[in-house]
Write a structure and sequence with these properties.
By secondary structure, the protein is mainly alpha-helical. Among the domains are: 30 residues; 43 residues. The protein is built from 10 helices and 4 strands. A hairpin with a 7-residue loop joins strand 3 and strand 4. Helix 7 runs antiparallel to helix 8. The radius of gyration is 26 Å and the shape is globular. It comes from Candidatus Giovannonibacteria bacterium RIFCSPLOWO2_01_FULL_46_32. This is DUF4919 domain-containing protein. Keywords: Signal.
Length: 235
């Protein structure tokens, strides 16, 4: 009898210690529900609703290129952690928009010069010089071929084209009020907004062709639909 009781006690201990082990293995999944929400949804909402990383140089001039690249890393980490998430298409779209916003390597240097130039003009209270500073900055951007980094422009467009091919009718997951928890799936489709963004860099004829495709085949927010219909002369 003592033997049976001893065996039972050992078995109980094994069960008690085994349960937390198995529970821990279960919770290791990145798609677990935590505090009533799927982990990937919570992480995405925190990422999408949070501020951009703030990066400045020693002169306190914001480095927008570095800020965008830091945010790019965050979205790339999300996609690597949740490759099967239902939010993958939305995360890819956000990543594409970040790629398109990356400034060229020389732009920060131009902005530093602008900062110094404006500082001198303000100290002298010279409005004309202040205007000249801004004009010189814009001319520097133009001489560099624009503010955007061409490599990241290509990456962004590649991601957008991939979204049209692989996730054309995936619904957007948008923020309707600030903060995590303020998101919902929308009627607008990823393929529609991806095509709309791609169309902005095209010649007028091709842009209108894209607008026609969006209107006929996709769902997009009413204000963009009206804008495209007006451009196409559709009542």
């Amino acid at each position: 009898m003592k033997t049976i009781s001893g065996f039972t006690a050992v078995l109980c201990l094994l069960v008690l210690f085994a349960i937390p082990v198995f529970a821990q293995q279960e919770s290791d999944s990145p798609y677990d529900i935590i505090n009533g929400r799927h982990q990937d949804f919570g992480d995405f909402e925190e990422l999408a609703s949070g501020p951009m990383p703030w990066v400045r140089d020693r002169t306190f001039v914001p480095d927008y290129r570095a800020m965008h690249l830091e945010q790019v890393k965050r979205y790339e980490s999300f996609l690597a952690k949740y490759p099967e998430s239902p939010l993958k298409a939305e995360a890819l779209f956000m990543l594409a928009m970040l790629y398109l916003g990356v400034e060229g390597q020389d732009v920060h240097m131009f902005r530093q010069r602008l900062f110094v130039c404006q500082g001198v003009a303000l100290e002298q209270r010279n409005q004309q010089k202040l205007d000249i500073c801004q004009m010189q900055f814009m001319l520097s951007i133009a001489s560099a071929g624009g503010a955007a980094d061409p490599t990241y422009q290509r990456l962004g467009r590649q991601v957008l084209k991939g979204l049209v091919e692989k996730y054309p009718h995936a619904r957007r997951y948008i923020m309707i009020k600030p903060g995590a928890g303020g998101f919902r799936f929308d009627e607008e489709e990823i393929g529609a907004i991806a095509l709309y963004v791609l169309a902005q860099g095209m010649i007028p004829g091709d842009r209108l062709s894209y607008y026609q495709t969006i209107i006929q085949e996709f769902k997009i927010r009413p204000e963009l639909r009206r804008e495209m219909q007006n451009r196409l002369g559709i009542q």
